[in-house]
């Protein structure tokens, strides 16, 4: 059974040239979702609504979603369903905004994020625009990101996008039929990442204009390796499998796949030289995961 709860839009909300819908798929978090909402409440651009695809089996998010936020919220409760891509697809098809953004449930945005993103989208005249993950000083985190604005291609798509920092025109999502439910965190497959690369590669091959602007930043908890525990290594392994799978799915050849498999092995050698032998299992699992994804076959957990 799917339960929907809404609050009305803020009174006298100003009209803008764009209307944006934000689709948040969430499971198991409350405080982080509240932090996201707080950041949205402070946006300088206010003509947007939020759809929460609530995959929790309980109603833990209901009190948060019925608070008097200065934006319209719809909570779409889908207990028993799992997967970020599945949730995004369930969500964007319920929304009506001309532009759609898919925030992580544990990210947050600077107050001018929507305003700057829409201005950049208009400036670059693109169908899809992406930014980067950064801490609040502007330093890139949780991945390697290009330093200059550029159009996306099959090479830089791996260093210009992260799921919660990509805005789509609705017509692009319609053309692409959204995300692949079988790729991404929580999917019922071993391929636990790179759903954004999958959809962007499909967009590029469909002739859509995709642009990256590093001036667009959002925030997230930084993943610090330290001494990786079993949970972090399992997560990295699943993410690596997703990358290898998407590389193979979209026809990247053996040489390119071998390059991506070799990168964590090179990092392992560097770590060993620095006296960090504890990092070897982590980098080994990343390399193995990428190879498993490319082979579309898994070996153990």
From TrEMBL:
One of its GO terms (molecular function) is glycosyltransferase activity. Gene3D superfamilies: Spore Coat Polysaccharide Biosynthesis Protein SpsA, Chain A. Residues 21-133 form the Glycosyltransferase 2-like domain. Keywords: Glycosyltransferase, Transferase. InterPro entries: Glyco_trans_2-like, Nucleotide-diphossugar_trans. It comes from the Bacteria. Pfam families: Glycos_transf_2. Belongs to the glycosyltransferase 2 family. This is Glycosyltransferase, GT2 family. It comes from Sphingomonas palmae. The lineage of its organism: Bacteria, Pseudomonadati, Pseudomonadota, Alphaproteobacteria, Sphingomonadales.
């Amino acid at each position: 059974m799917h339960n929907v709860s809404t609050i009305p839009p803020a009174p006298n909300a100003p009209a803008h040239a764009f209307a944006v819908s934000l689709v948040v798929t969430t499971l198991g978090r409350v405080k982080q979702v509240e932090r996201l909402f707080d950041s949205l409440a402070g946006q300088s651009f206010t003509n947007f609504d939020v759809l929460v695809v609530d995959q929790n089996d309980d109603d833990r998010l209901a009190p948060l979603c019925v608070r008097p936020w200065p934006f319209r919220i719809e909570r779409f409760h889908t207990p028993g369903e799992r997967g970020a891509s599945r949730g995004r697809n369930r969500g964007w098809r319920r929304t009506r905004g001309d532009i759609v953004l898919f925030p992580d449930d544990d990210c947050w945005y600077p107050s001018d994020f929507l305003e700057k993103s829409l201005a950049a989208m208009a400036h670059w005249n693109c169908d899809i625009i992406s930014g980067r993950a950064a801490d609040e000083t502007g330093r890139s985190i949780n991945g390697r990101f290009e330093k200059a604005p550029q159009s996306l291609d099959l090479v830089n798509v791996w260093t210009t996008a992260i799921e919660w920092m990509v805005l789509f025109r609705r017509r692009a999502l319609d053309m692409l039929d959204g995300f692949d439910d079988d790729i991404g965190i929580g999917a019922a497959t071993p391929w636990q990442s790179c759903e954004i690369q999958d959809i962007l590669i499909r967009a590029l091959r469909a002739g859509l204009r995709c642009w990256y602007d590093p001036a667009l930043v959002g925030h997230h908890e930084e993943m610090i390796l330290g001494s990786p525990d079993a949970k972090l290594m399992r997560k990295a392994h699943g993410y690596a499998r997703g990358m290898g799978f998407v590389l193979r799915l979209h026809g990247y050849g053996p040489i390119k796949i071998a390059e991506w498999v070799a990168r964590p092995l090179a990092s392992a050698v560097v770590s060993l030289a620095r006296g960090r032998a504890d990092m070897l299992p982590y980098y080994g699992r990343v390399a193995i995961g990428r190879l498993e994804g490319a082979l579309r076959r898994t070996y153990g957990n």
